[in-house]
Fold this sequence. Notes:
The protein has helices spanning about 10-20, 110-135, and strands at about 30-35, 40-45, 50-55. It is of the alpha+beta class. It has 2 domains: about 10-55, no CATH class; about 70-135, 3-Layer(bba) Sandwich (FAD/NAD(P)-binding domain). Strands 1-2-3 form a 3-stranded antiparallel β-sheet, with no helix packed on it. The protein is elongated, with a radius of gyration of 20 Å.
Amino acid sequence: MSLTPLTGDAILIDKLSAAKNLTIFTEYQTEKIEGQGFVSGILIRDLKSGEQKQLDVTGVFIEIGLVPNSELVKELIELNKQEEVPISCSCETGIPGLYAAGDVTDVPEKQIVVAAGEGAKATLQAHRYLQRLAT
């Protein structure tokens, strides 16, 4: 279920769409998660019609997709259409000394391990940049 059309990585959206054991509800809002000790149901509301639906479920998974937190740099660099920061393979933004990493960038596969690796790369590149300035 999503308030908007799904915005995650295309490969993940395709995988979800192909799954035969789930239904995707877009433009719905969760009204209530029901159960005692364990989830037993969920009440959702269609944002267009206002119609409510009761679904019997045994689990709720929260979040696919994201809105990058790129507000800080939007006046400095041109963001892509997803409002991500475009970077090179060295985490460079195109502005000397400004590096970016993690889910705010246009790197695919928004996963923790990928973000951590990109953070390490950006740190190393920033360190090299500062060393060059000092000499």
